């Protein structure tokens, strides 16, 4: 504080300033875009310092640009009858709009109708707008989904060795991409893919419904995505991504139809989405075993707010199991989940390497969820036999608070690795109503702290192992 400013203040203003400073020291303070909140552990020892993001890391994406040139898909020969293949119409329209990339950008308008198409690539400074009643309908001919190289952080297709089918809507090395509309629909018609996967007839890994690679300044909003062959929305190696106001649907029995999977990406905001599918609603990833470690692209600065949905077989929020590039600085608040296998899940394995740290999850409501919180270090699927068995995952600094649940079969299941336990796991203000009177907690190789948790956790989560100050959910200043 500069002396001249202090002298200019009245006595009352100085007193108010001192009160504010004292309150800041005792409770919260704002610093470098964070809100810092001090808590105390159960035994009253050294405070726990939790940093919550105050800044909006996606603020610059919230005002959509007006494009200088708008065309409709039917101007390029598109026919929205659900039967005519429109792949060339999409490709030609986007190629034409690419000439406006440095002239204010272009918009491709999709009017009401059923627009059948194979895979197509986007371009920079483009808006893809689906009007109300418009559906982009994916071709069920596998030949309309070309095979492309495996991701370098995976080393092969996620399901099968070799390449992988490209996504229906794809983009690479792009900037300023907007995929939006008046609640139009993108339908992957995934049934044929699910059946081929079930009977082992696929030669390559299934394609996503939407994948963007090495891209930045991306907005995906106000749409419905249904029946993806594989993961639905997959931003990988991306930066500055806003995903909001989406409905994502797939049958509960559909295999691996994750909702949104940020992968080796940073500054990602996911907000106000409803997801109902056959796998995790959201799964944060960062590469697979030695390929992910060598590629070295972490997922970080990810904010998830106001997510709701259901899934029978999987989790509401998952981190991993592909986490070899590291996952950090994740903030999740306002999660409503029903009829799921797990509420919050961390998946890893010996050989993964990498880390998961600085995770903050708060204000969740679970209904009919078998396991509220589940961490496993035995999710042991590997891309090949070249992985390093001495590459152990490091998972720590996880803060979970304000969770309510009813019809919960198990409160917590922590299955860590000997010599590499989960540590600095904080649980606070959690109330879970059980469907059974049997054991509600299963803990092995985990160390942490708890406060106001019912039913009472296992002993490993009731003690303090060390006393240094702890910072959780640091959404780092960039």
From TrEMBL:
<dbReference type="GO" id="GO:0004650">
    <property type="term" value="F:polygalacturonase activity"/>
</dbReference>
<dbReference type="InterPro" id="IPR011050">
    <property type="entry name" value="Pectin_lyase_fold/virulence"/>
</dbReference>
<dbReference type="Pfam" id="PF00295">
    <property type="entry name" value="Glyco_hydro_28"/>
</dbReference>
<keyword id="KW-0732">Signal</keyword>
<keyword id="KW-0326">Glycosidase</keyword>
<feature type="signal peptide">
    <location>
        <begin position="1"/>
        <end position="30"/>
    </location>
</feature>
<keyword id="KW-0378">Hydrolase</keyword>
<dbReference type="InterPro" id="IPR006626">
    <property type="entry name" value="PbH1"/>
</dbReference>
<dbReference type="GO" id="GO:0005975">
    <property type="term" value="P:carbohydrate metabolic process"/>
</dbReference>
<protein>
    <recommendedName>
        <fullName>Polygalacturonase</fullName>
    </recommendedName>
</protein>
<dbReference type="InterPro" id="IPR000743">
    <property type="entry name" value="Glyco_hydro_28"/>
</dbReference>
<dbReference type="InterPro" id="IPR051801">
    <property type="entry name" value="GH28_Enzymes"/>
</dbReference>
<dbReference type="InterPro" id="IPR012334">
    <property type="entry name" value="Pectin_lyas_fold"/>
</dbReference>
<comment type="similarity">
    <text>Belongs to the glycosyl hydrolase 28 family.</text>
</comment>
């Amino acid at each position: 504080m500069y002396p001249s400013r202090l002298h200019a203040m009245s006595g009352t203003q100085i007193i108010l300033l001192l009160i504010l400073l004292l309150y800041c020291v005792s409770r919260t303070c704002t610093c470098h875009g964070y809100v810092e909140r001090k808590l105390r552990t159960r035994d009253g020892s050294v405070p726990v310092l939790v940093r919550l993001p105050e800044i909006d890391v996606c603020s610059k994406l919230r005002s959509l640009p007006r494009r200088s040139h708008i065309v409709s898909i039917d101007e390029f020969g598109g026919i929205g009858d659900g039967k005519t293949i429109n792949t060339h119409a999409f490709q030609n329209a986007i190629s034409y709009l690419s000439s406006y990339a440095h002239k204010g950008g272009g918009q491709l308008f999709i009017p009401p109708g059923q627009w059948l198409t194979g895979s197509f690539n986007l371009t920079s400074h483009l808006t893809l707008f689906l009007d109300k009643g418009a559906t982009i309908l994916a071709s069920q001919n596998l030949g309309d989904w070309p095979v492309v190289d495996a991701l370098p952080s995976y080393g092969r297709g996620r399901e099968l060795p070799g390449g992988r089918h490209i996504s229906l809507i794809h983009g690479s090395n792009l900037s300023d991409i907007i995929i939006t509309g008046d609640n139009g629909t993108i339908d992957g018609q995934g049934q044929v893919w699910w059946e081929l996967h079930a009977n082992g007839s696929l030669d390559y890994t299934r394609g996503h419904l939407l994948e963007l690679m090495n891209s930045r300044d991306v907005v995906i909003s106000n749409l419905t995505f249904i029946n993806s062959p594989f993961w639905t929305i997959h931003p990988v190696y991306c930066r500055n991504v806003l995903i909001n106001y989406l409905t994502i649907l797939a049958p509960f029995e559909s295999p691996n139809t994750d909702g949104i999977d940020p992968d080796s990406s940073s500054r990602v905001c996911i907000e106000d989405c409803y997801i109902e599918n056959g796998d995790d609603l959201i799964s944060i990833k960062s590469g697979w075993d030695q390929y992910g470690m060598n590629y070295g692209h972490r997922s970080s600065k990810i904010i998830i707010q106001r997510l709701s949905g259901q899934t029978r077989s999987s989790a509401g929020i998952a981190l991993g199991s592909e986490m070899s590039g590291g996952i950090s600085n994740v903030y999740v608040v306002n999660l409503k989940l029903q009829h799921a296998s797990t509420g919050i899940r961390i998946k890893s394995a010996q050989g993964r390497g990498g880390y998961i740290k600085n995770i903050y999850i708060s204000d969740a409501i679970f209904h009919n969820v078998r396991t509220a919180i589940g961490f496993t270090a035995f999710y042991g699927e590997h891309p090949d036999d070249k992985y390093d068995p001495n590459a152990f995952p490091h998972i720590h600094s996880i803060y979970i608070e304000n969770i309510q649940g009813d019809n919960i079969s198990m409160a917590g299941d922590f299955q860590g690795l000997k010599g590499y336990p989960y540590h600095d796991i904080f649980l606070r203000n959690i109330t879970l109503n059980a469907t059974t009177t049997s054991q509600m907690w299963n803990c092995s190789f985990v160390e942490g702290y708890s406060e106001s948790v019912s039913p009472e956790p296992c002993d490993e989560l009731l003690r303090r192992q060390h006393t240094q100050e702890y910072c959780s959910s640091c959404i780092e200043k960039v």
